[in-house]
């Protein structure tokens, strides 16, 4: 048959797999804190930016309010000092007019307390009040809600709340700690309180001559309103950003998470052995990474199915090929007990021995064929000189002598280079198989020719013989496993039928082609052509 005994080169331990595994572990360690998160959770986590931005805005608004209040206290302190200086310089009749005008201009309340702490003069007694303290019980529900929001935000950001104004205390100097401190220290003192409606009240106290104290106060409702307005704008922006984030999350979940979940489900069903009933989506219209992943998984599944089919077919062929010699051995062994003729017993033993040898050959070739893909995937591609290899094999075969007077020759173009990338031992196995096939089909005194050609970026090694040629329509069948096409006169079972199948697998693993055609010029024989990319 058009087959020969494949050689079995030694294998080397694979060191690439542990390195790949180590690389995978290293990549996975970068996600150590979030490796258990789903993709949807990670997308939502990214969208927490909107919430963090809102929280940061709230913190900024609180600091902005504190700066405004501090600035307002500085202005009141300066105003209190100027008013106190004016009171020292003016005569008593002018004091009432001074505090009335100053209070109206600065929209503050100015009071003077006597040495005993009693209120001696009040700008609201000589001019209309400049501000009014609102009663929370009579206010609209929206203001009540605004105060609740103020309290909640102050609590969240950890802002310090000043004490509330106690309206039940008498209007005396002793009711105001800053006035007492100003009298005791002789220095200007400031204070901040909350009005009943939670608007800030700013106070400054300045000591006067004769044990008197001047206080100036104001209700900073405008600051509270500004902060609330800015907070409303910030909240509106937050709602917009949050809505946009949720829409983006939904979009990403629909376009990323759901397709990945479909692919994962399909892969799971394939893993469970349901590949026949699973259609892996290809997402043909997608041109992004998920589309590439889907098509890769689909192609991988198709390749897996093809590999499973090939394995099942190979297993069936192996069982069939082993069944015949085993049946022959069983028949011979069963007959030995009833045969008394020594000559016939010797023939039966010879048949059993030949069948055992055939089984051993089959098992060895099957083992080599089953390891072929794994070994080729680990093979190191190095420059191989096909011309030198062909010459070496020609000398080897001629040196050990060829049967039936068959000769072998090598033809090559001296000016061409015939270097190809590959595994030298495996390519040598192909060349030996082709030579053995050519020799086995050559007639007595026939000639086997190895010729080398260079066609652009391709190197061809052609093995020609003068045998009967390839039966019409069998050009591809001879490369199938266990295909049987024996030369005339050859004993049955001397070849396993795997040689050419293994040879083609090796050549294709080297990104080449192995084909066969009839002899040129209408002559007898066959031409096996191994085409490989050139270096």
From TrEMBL:
The catalytic activity of this protein is classed by the Enzyme Commission as 2.7.13.3
Q: Which UniProt keywords apply?
A: Kinase, Membrane, Phosphoprotein, Transferase, Transmembrane, Transmembrane helix, Two-component regulatory system
**InterPro entries hit by this protein:** HAMP_dom, HATPase_C_sf, HATPase_dom, His_kinase_dom, HisK_dim/P_dom, HisK_dim/P_sf, Sensor_TM1, Sig_transdc_His_kin-like_C
Coiled coil regions, renumbered to chain: none
Instruction: Output this protein's name.
Output: histidine kinase
Q: Which reaction does it catalyse?
A: ATP + protein L-histidine = ADP + protein N-phospho-L-histidine
Species in which this protein is naturally found: Pacificimonas flava
The subcellular location is:
Membrane
